[in-house]
Amino acid sequence: MREIEFDVVVKAVRDIIVHCGTDLPQDTYDALEEAMENEASPVSKEVIRQILENANIAKDEKRPLCQDTGLAVFFVKVGDEVKIKGGLLKDAINKGTEQGYTEAYLRASTCEPFSRANLKDTVGYNLPAIIHFDIVAGDKIDIEYAAKGGGSENVSRARVFPPAAGKDGIVEYVKEVISDAGGNPCPPITVGVGIGGTFEKAAISSKHALFRDIGSKNPDPEMDEMEQRILTEINKLGIGAMGMGGTKTALAVHIEANPCHIASLPVSVNVQCHSSRHTHITI
Amino acid sequence: MAQYSLTTPLSSEDTKKLKAGDTVLLNGTLFTARDAAHSRLVKLIEEGKELPFDIEGSVIYFVGPTPPKPGDPIGSAGPTTSYRMDSFSPTMLKNGSKGMIGKGKRSQEVKDACVEYDGIYFGATGGAGALLGKQITSAEVIAYPELGPEAVRKITVKDFPVTVINDTHGNDLYQMGREQYEVKD
How many domains does chain A have? Predict the structure, then answer.
């Protein structure tokens, strides 16, 4: 059994939150640069130029990339030979989240769902974090993190189709979701598509699909082909950067597919804005 | 597509010359408000009570900034999605406000109110909070501090970059831009 100190996890989580708040990941930066070069609309080209300039300012001056510093979302794989010394792993992640959001001057965006009262003064900054745990073999903890903004989350959707809908039905559905969203989710976007499993499995898969680096290839050739097909269809919509009209509405489409019930074809579409703040660490 | 530099408060003369797609550098005072603050402001108007700022010619910025670092007037401050203000904006325009800054499409009622009351809906680049925050030279909470990031702030801006989305003539840049670049099979 490997023992990991509670505070080691707290510090690791705090550090990635601080870093992601101000430093746009390289995969996203590169994809935006490429989009700017290939964008046909001068108006959208200028928007992407501002987005890249913003990323440079944020990194150099340690300012938050966006005022929506998101809710903290984690996918955590815990090795079965790991024991946290001095507390619970969940508590360590939440404590690191609170410290990171506070120390980096990130916005407290969590509120009570009905009164809409900001929870800053009661339970701290942006708590509780959204954490998805999995248990795996080994003596390490693997943490994937993303700061997920509200604008792109608001246009996300899920639906359970009859199996006959097939691939064509899925492509049409994703297109419809993105078309209806227009400029609201801050394009150029990344689109996560979760297919199969159950209702909630599809939704979680669509979220996890957004953690994959932009520009990486889906290892399944059939899914890779489908990703390219949906990406082409989305970029024909003409939405462009911030909805101002253009040819680069999406940077990438990522699919995660799972086996499902013989009666169902669950599909979930989770949208990520251009400020794709995500990272990955192993403790 | 023309480029302008305008100083607030805006007049009908200022807003009527603007066309969807024009870029504008705004200077002067803006007031910040999101949904929670709008709901309270519109209630004050309906009750005939005084607003916490002079609405005549005002430009409202839909933003909830990050907390300022020590020594800075404000943190990162990019626009939030505007449709959440759609039910309130026509009342604001009817009572003298001349501009809104946000991101994302507006309802037909808001577009109609822009035509009727000489209002402009400006778009700022969403997610460019660090860049836009730097164009804000002062900020002061003037109402509803309990709303935290959603409090009403009086802010001063210098060359704040925006694009005209909905003009006083009924044009919509989102619609025009999309029609131009949409590929139909």
Answer: 2
Q: Give every residue of chain A whose pLDDT is below 70, as ranges.
A: 119-124
Q: How far is B2 from chain A (nearest CA, A)?
A: 12
CATH number of the CATH domain containing A182: 3.30.1330
Report helix, strand or coil for A74.
strand
Q: Which of B34, B38, B103, B105 is catalytic?
A: B38
Neighbour tally for B124: CB within 10 Å: 26
Interface subset of A 6-25, CB within 8 angstroms of B: 22
Burial of residue A103 (number of CB atoms within 10 Å: 0-12, 13-18, 19+)? middle
CB contact under 8 A, A66 and B183: no
Could you report the per-residue pLDDT of A102-120, keeping only the tens digit for each?
Answer: 999 898 888 888 877 776 6
Whether residues A67 and B104 touch (CB distance < 8 A) is answered with: no
Smallest Cβ–Cβ distance between A65 and the set B127, B179, B181 belongs to B127
* Host domain of residue A157: 150-275
DSSP conformational letter for A281: E
Which ipTM did the prediction report? Answer: 0.90
Q: Give tens-digit pLDDT for A112-168.
A: 888 777 766 655 578 899 999 999 999 999 999 999 999 999 999 999 999 999 999
Gap between the Cα atoms of A44 and A33, Å rounded: 12
Look-up of token digits 């003539």: B169
Judged by a CB distance cut-off of 8 A, whether residue A242 touches chain B is yes
B37-59 confidence digits (pLDDT tens): 999 999 999 999 999 999 999 99
